[in-house]
Amino acid sequence: MRVWQDDRLARVALSRIVEPGDPRLLASISSIGPVETLQQLADSHPDLAELQAETQARSGGLEPERILAIAARQGIRFVTPADDEWPHQLADLEQPRVQGRGGVPVGLWVRGPQRLDTLAGSVAVVGARTATGYGASVAGDIAAQVAGAGRPVVSGAAFGIDQAAHRGALGSDGSTVAVLACGADRIYPEAHRDLIEHLATRHAVVSEAPPGWSPMRMRFLSRNRLIAALTSGTVVVEAALRSGALNTANWAHQLNRPVMGVPGPVTSAQSQGVHQLVRVGAAGLVTTGPEVLEMVAESGQHLLEVPRGPETTRDRLDPVDRQVLDAVPVSRAVPSVSIARTAGIGPGTTDAVLVRLQEAGLVRSDGHGWRLAGLALP
Amino acid sequence: MRVWQDDRLARVALSRIVEPGDPRLLASISSIGPVETLQQLADSHPDLAELQAETQARSGGLEPERILAIAARQGIRFVTPADDEWPHQLADLEQPRVQGRGGVPVGLWVRGPQRLDTLAGSVAVVGARTATGYGASVAGDIAAQVAGAGRPVVSGAAFGIDQAAHRGALGSDGSTVAVLACGADRIYPEAHRDLIEHLATRHAVVSEAPPGWSPMRMRFLSRNRLIAALTSGTVVVEAALRSGALNTANWAHQLNRPVMGVPGPVTSAQSQGVHQLVRVGAAGLVTTGPEVLEMVAESGQHLLEVPRGPETTRDRLDPVDRQVLDAVPVSRAVPSVSIARTAGIGPGTTDAVLVRLQEAGLVRSDGHGWRLAGLALP
User: Fold this and answer.
1) Which CATH fold would you assign to the domain A88-296?
2) Known Pfam families for this protein (chains A, B) (predicted)?
3) Does residue A92 or residue B375 have the better pLDDT?
C-alpha cells in the first residue's frame, strides 16, 4: 500500500473514493487532515470502518498524479484549501448538515479561467427547471443587474432559471459560474452544451465530483450546498413546493447567508415554494437586482432609496392649496363656500385657490359649484 | 344658544359640524365627552378656538332630532358608543394618528340590517381601483374564503379590488360591509349603484360622514382608518406605490392589526406597493384565504398545515431503495456495480433494488447499465 505524504495528492485520491459531501469523510479531514484520513481508510481504522467498507471498491490502484494529468489535458485543475484561489467562504460549511450531507469539500475541480477567489461577494440565482416565461425573464434581469454591478452570478446548469441566470449575466458582460453535480468535463443536460462550453471557456464550471462522474440525485443535493456556500446570498426566482431550489435556499439559511425570494402570481405553482419561504420568514422578498445588491451588501453599500410613485401635480402644491383640493368633491359639484367649510379655510382664500387649481386643470366649475376635474383620488 | 344635554344628540350635531377624523374634536370628546365639547364650541372656549373658527359656518341652527328623523326615513341609523351594536374595537383609535387624522369616531351612520358588532373578527380586503384581472380574481377568491369561513369582509366601494372583494364575499353567501367616504345615502361611484344598494339591503354601508356629504380626498383618508380599525386584519391585494390602499395598511399597522400583502408579478406596477410593504416588514405575505384566516385567528384557531407538494413515488420507497435510486445517473447509463459503490450498498442488494425500481418505472436498463427512467431529479 502506497504511503500518502502530499496533502494535494491525498485530496485527489479522496475525491475519487468518497461521494461529494459525505460528512464522515469531511469531518475526518477537518480533524486529522487528508493524508492521515487516507491512511486510516487504507488501514481500515475503526474510526472510518463504515466509510472504508462502503468505499473499498473504489480505493484500489489510484494514481493521483495521473488523474491530475488527465484532468489537466481536459483543461481541469484541482483547487484545494492550500491554493491561493481557494474560496475561503467555504469554511462556513464546517458545521452545518442538511439531509445527512455537509462539510468543507475535499477540493474543487474547475474548468475555465475564472479564479474561485473571485466568488467572494457572488450571488446565487437559482430556481425551477420548469420555469415560466415570467420567471426566466425576471431571473435574467436580476442576474444581469447583479453581474453588471461586478458581482459574479453562481448557478447550476439546468433548464429554466439556471440557464436564464447565466444568459442574463453574460448579456451584461458580467461573470457567471456553473456548479455541476457531475464531473466538470461532463455536459448535463446535453442541450446546454454550448452554454456550458462557453462558461468553461470564459468563466468557470466547478464540481466537487471528479472528472467523469455522472450526475445523480445525491450529487445534486451535495452540489446545492456549494452554491449556497460559495455565494454571499441566494436568490430563488421560481420554485414549486418540492423544488430542489428550496434545498439550496435551506443551505443558504443554515449558512446564515441572505435568502431572497422573488414573488410571482399566487396562481402559479412555480411561485408557491418561494411564497412559502417568504411566508415563514426563511427568505426576504426581492423584486429587482438593486434590491438583491442591497441585501448582500456590506452595510452602507448599495443603499436603496425607498421607491416612490411618480410625483403628481398635487405633490407640488403648497399646503393651503392642497388642503382646498382635498376638500373638493370627486362627484357632484358644491359651492365654494361649502368647500371652504370642509377645508377649514376662509371663503376668500378658498375662492382664490380654486381659480388657481382650475388653471392647473385639477378642478372644474359648472358655474354653480366645483368638483374635481379627474379621478385624482388618494 | 341651545343647551345640549343628550349625549346622542350632541354626537349628531358634532358629526354635522366637524370633518370625519378631526383629531382635535375626537380628543376633546374622549376627554370631556360630546355634550361638554359641543358646549365649548358654542362658547368659543379657548381650548377649541381654532376648531370653532373653522366650523362656525356649519354650527348654526342644527336640529339633531330632525337630522335623525330624515336619516331614519332614508333607512339610516346613527350608532354611538352607547349602543349595543357599537364596534368596541374602534377604541384602539384613541391614540394613533396618521397624516394629521385620527381618533374614535363621534358616531357612525349605518344603512342596512347588519349590526356593527358583527364586525368583530372581520377582515379588510382592499387594493387598487385600477386592479388587474389577476388582482380582482385573487381578491374575489380570498374574500369568498374569508366570508365563507364566517368572518365578514370590509372594504370601500371603489372600482377594482373593493368591488371584487364584495362580489367574492357575496358569492360565498358571506357578509360584507362597505365603509364610505361620503354619506351612507350617497352612491359613489355611480356605476356601483346596484352593488351599494345590495349591500345596504342585505348587509350594511357605513360612514362617519353624515347623510348628504360628498366624497373627497380628506374623507377617504379618514375613512381608511375606520376600515383598518373595524377589522382584525387588512389584506392588500394590489397597490401601486402611491395607492390609497397603502394608507389603509399604514393605519392597520399603527393599530397593531395584521397587515397582509398578496404578491404578484414583479413586472406589475399594481403589485409594487404590496411588495414594498412586505419587503420592509410592514406586511406579511399571504396567498390564499386560509392563510389570511390563520393570520387573523386567535392562537390555536385556523392552523394551517405546512403546504407540501404532491407525494411522489420516491417518497413511498423504503430508505435503502431510495439510497440506490439517488445514486442512479440521470443521463448516461452505468453498470450496477458502479451504482452500488456510489450508494455505499452491496452489489447483490443493489441489483435486487434496481429490478424493483425498474418495475416501479423509476429506472431503466439498456442491458449494460442503468439510468433514471425520467427526469425525477431533486
Assistant:
1) Rossmann fold (3.40.50)
2) DNA_processg_A
3) A92
Report the residue of B137, B279, B292 to disrupt the A interface, i.e. the one with the largest count of A CBs within 10 Å: B279
- Whole-angstrom CA distances from B265 to A263, A266, B238, B271, B274 are 6, 9, 11, 7, 11
Contacts across the A-B interface (CB distance below 8 Å) = 186
**Percentage, residues of chain A above pLDDT 70:** 95
Summarised one tens digit per residue, pLDDT across range B115-132 is: 999 999 999 999 999 999
User: Where do the H-state alpha helices sit in chain B?
Assistant: 7-17, 23-42, 49-59, 64-73, 133-148, 161-171, 193-202, 217-230, 244-254, 269-279, 289-296, 319-325, 336-343, 347-359
Q: Which of B267, B279, B287 sits opposite A266 (nearest CB)?
A: B287
Cα dihedral B305, B311, B314, B315 in deg (nearest 10): 30
Per the confidence metrics, is the pTM higher than 0.90? Answer: no
Kindly report the CA angle at B239 between B238 and B241, in degrees rounded to 5? 150
CB contact under 8 A, B57 and A341: yes
CB atoms within 10 A of CB B300: 6
> Interhelix angle for A269-279 vs A244-254, to 10°?
20
Give Cα separations from A359 to A315, A353, A356, A363 (angstroms): 16, 10, 5, 8
Q: B313-376 has which fold?
A: Arc Repressor Mutant, subunit A (1.10.10)
Instruction: Return residue ranges of chain A for CATH 3.40.50.450.
Output: 88-296
Candidates B136, B112, B116; CA nearest to B126 is B136
Cβ within 8 Å of A, B 42-61: 54-55, 57-58
pLDDT bucket at B378, cuts 50 / 70 / 90 = very low
Residue-wise pLDDT for B147-182, tens only, equals 999 999 999 999 999 999 999 999 999 999 999 999
What ipTM was assigned to the predicted interfaces of this complex? 0.86
